[in-house]
Amino acid sequence: MSTMTRSDLGPEGRTLPKSLVAFDSGPADGPALVCIPWAGAGGAPFQAWAPVLDGTAAVHAVRLPGRESRIDEPLLNELEPIVEEVVRGVRALGDRPVALFGLCSGALVAFEAARALGPGRVSLLAASQMPPAVAARVATEELASREGLAARYLPAELLAEPEMVELLIEVLEADIQAVSGYRHAPEPLDGVPVTVFRGAQDPEIGLAEMDGWHAETTGPVHILEVPGADHLFTGAAWRGLAEQIGVRLRGALTMESSGVE
Questions:
Q1: Which segments within 86-121 are labelled E, that is strand?
Q2: Where are the domains of the chain?
């Protein structure tokens, strides 16, 4: 059984770049799951996935400037340098197969990282994210209200702490500015398999709105709903999402490319 500890070491003991942290070494012949957090978040929440995916994948998380151990680094408010951080981390993993997972805005970063890495290198897992073609418009609408950002993304218990709210809002705004400035390329990903997850109780994105992902790759697209899950997969749904990802990575679930479950 693999060890569930945070590490800055990649395959064969190679040092990982500071943009990537490993939570689990995973099976020697298994894929690396590289998780990209949602707007305003760091990589720490994905540590809880390591025991869920033990024996299936090596769980890694992207840690961006301005949060966690990189708190003193300037925030990035453009998508391109954020994607470069992810690509640098993936390349440090050597030849190991990689599944890129992104939640909300992290899914858009994962999408462009998959494009940069080229065909045959990665698969893409996206959750709670509108298709890339409309992502910038949605993000621009979100930037219209700081209060709305706080209510949507921050836990209720933090809203009574103005200093903490101000710090987190700055990170949120930088991440969402990066998405709002995104320019979507009309060319789909070349053969990259894509799985899209939606919380069945998500009030923000309907199942039909996810259909646009079919136009974003020439590879197969699967759209799955996670029972009981909201937009950010809070509570028990966080583990449920990890379990669904495990099923996909093990190849135990087969569907037609246009299937919905």
A1: 98-103
A2: 11-132+188-250
pLDDT in tens, 81-109: 999 999 999 999 998 899 999 999 999 99
DSSP 7: B
Do 107 and 41 meet the contact criterion of CB atoms below 8 Å apart? no
Give the CATH architecture of domain 11-132+188-250.
3-Layer(aba) Sandwich (3.40)
Secondary structure (3-state) at 40: coil
> Residue 154: which residues within 8 A CB-CB, separation 6 or more?
40, 165, 168, 169, 172
d(CA 75, CA 54): 32
Tens of pLDDT, residues 142-177: 666 777 777 777 777 777 788 778 888 889 989 989
Strand order in the sheet with 98-103: 20-22, 58-62, 32-36, 98-103, 122-127, 194-199, 221-226
* Closest to 154 in 3D by CA, of 167, 144, 143, 137: 167
Provide the token pair at 185.
């390329």
182 with 209: CB under 8 angstroms? no
Note the pTM of the prediction, 2 decimals.
0.87
Q: Tell me how far apart the alpha carbons of residues 230 and 205 are, in angstroms, rounded to a whole number.
A: 10
Closest CA to 36 of 95, 86, 96, 90: 86
